[in-house]
Amino acid sequence: MIYTCTLNPAIDLFVSMETFRPHTVNRTVEEDYQANGKGINVSFILNRMGFNNTAMGFLGGFTGEYIDQQLQLAGIATNFIPIDGITRINIFINAEEEYKIVNKGPTIAKADAEKMLDKIRSLPKKATLVVSGSLPPGMDESIYEQIASIARQRSIRLVLDISSPRLLDCLPYQPYLVKPNEDELAQFFGLPSLNEAGIQEKGRELLERGAQQVLVSLGERGSLYLSPETSIRVTSPQGNVVNTACSGDALLASFLGRRMKGDSLIDALTYASAAGASTAFSKGLSDLSDVENLRQQVQVSVHSQSEVKLS
């Protein structure tokens, strides 16, 4: 069974405008509301790929009710903890440029954080747990390590897509997969940025510290997959970018889904790259209908670990 955990979910409001100017009324051409949050996005994509999964996290207020309803309407099981306060709304504006307005979210009480840990402790052994996204106010970043410890004790396959440098504290618990983007990977090690060689080097350091697999999303340049045995670099299809907010979530979910279906690493990575691009070309999450066509654009280069060490 697959579970996703979104500690700070949101409703995302996507709006399109001809222009976006200060000190004037900016009228939208199109708008769309979507239940969101990184783990929730993973749930939606897995659901579209035919995988039953359960979405977990914290929800509050009328916005929380909307998210829960949208998940259940899609056929996704939910197991959220109700909280005081109102689940946040984020705004993504597409005009001449792309603008992202992300709210901090409601404060989570310590008692509710403990309830979440108890839910994770109750997950069946051998389950897959995807923990994605930022922390809401009131939650200490040590919760990531607590989750990793529980996952190790319970033989849960833990997937981490978090921006906090506290990810490094989780690595001794040998998470199944970690998925930073290139900026997050640099931040984990206190660096302003990384070139291609640096991404390879720091990605391998995550493996050396305990991660079983690393998948680094590189935006329009594609992604890099690393394991102790291999390094696989895949490109991304090119097209008209509408929204980059959810593409990394689509990449992660589709990679996991295709691997669970039994795909080879290369087949899973090319599909995932196409799914991530398809989402970037859409107002929200991809419906995956164009993935096979986009997949034809993806190029792959594979290196064994011995080749990586020699290069």
Automatic annotation (TrEMBL):
Gene Ontology terms describing biological process: carbohydrate catabolic process; D-tagatose 6-phosphate catabolic process; lactose metabolic process; small molecule metabolic process
The protein's annotated pathway: Carbohydrate metabolism; D-tagatose 6-phosphate degradation; D-glyceraldehyde 3-phosphate and glycerone phosphate from D-tagatose 6-phosphate: step 1/2
Assigned keywords, A-Z: ATP-binding, Kinase, Lactose metabolism, Nucleotide-binding, Transferase
Enzyme Commission identifier(s): 2.7.1.144
Gene Ontology terms: cellular component: cytosol
Coiled coil location: none
Catalyzed reactions per annotation: D-tagatofuranose 6-phosphate + ATP = D-tagatofuranose 1,6-bisphosphate + ADP + H(+)
Class of enzymatic activity (EC top level): transferase
Superkingdom of the source species: Bacteria
GO MF, one example: 1-phosphofructokinase activity
Domain Carbohydrate kinase PfkB: 23-287
CDD domains: FruK_PfkB_like (cd01164)
Family: Belongs to the carbohydrate kinase PfkB family. LacC subfamily.
Name of the protein in question: Tagatose-6-phosphate kinase
